[in-house]
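--- STAGE predict ---
source: upstream dedup step, 1 unique chain passed
mode: sequence only
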Amino acid sequence: MSNEVSRWTKATVYPDMWVNPDEDPRNTDGVSPDGELETLQDYLSDYRMTLRMKCEGLNAEQLARRSVQPSTMSLLGLLRHLAEVERDWRNWVTSGDPLPKLYGKRGADFDGAIPDQSVVDTAYTDLAREQEATDALLAGHPDPGERVGKDRIAVRELLIHRVEEYARHCGHADLLRECIDGRVGQ
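--- STAGE serialize ---
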């Protein structure tokens, strides 16, 4: 008996897609938004949804499964890491004392990603809460050229960094998911 998984997809139109285009919940109106801010927010929204899609249908053990030694990366770790990162981005916007880390010391987001349903539930709750809080804070800064925080970072740079962070981790999620159950696609 082999532990190898077979590659598969739900898509029937394009074999390298996650789902068929008419079943894809991302950017369903088919038209890209007008404006720099709206475009960046659209990309961020799609990458956030992609990460959630890569985690759908998996149990706590599968979500916590590590990639390869010595890495501590897992899908659950990515959810926790991105909650931590969302919180930290708010520190870039404000000038006050930084918010405390959600999971403790550096690396605890991945190290604490254990196969326990309560840890999974908390990770999803934390991520949604931190995303909403960061989005709400940035909604008060609609000019992408505005400089914010003690380092005077441009809102544009922060938004691009957020898109980059999710895009990079969605690439990791592709490989992690394929190793877990063989499902492939964008």
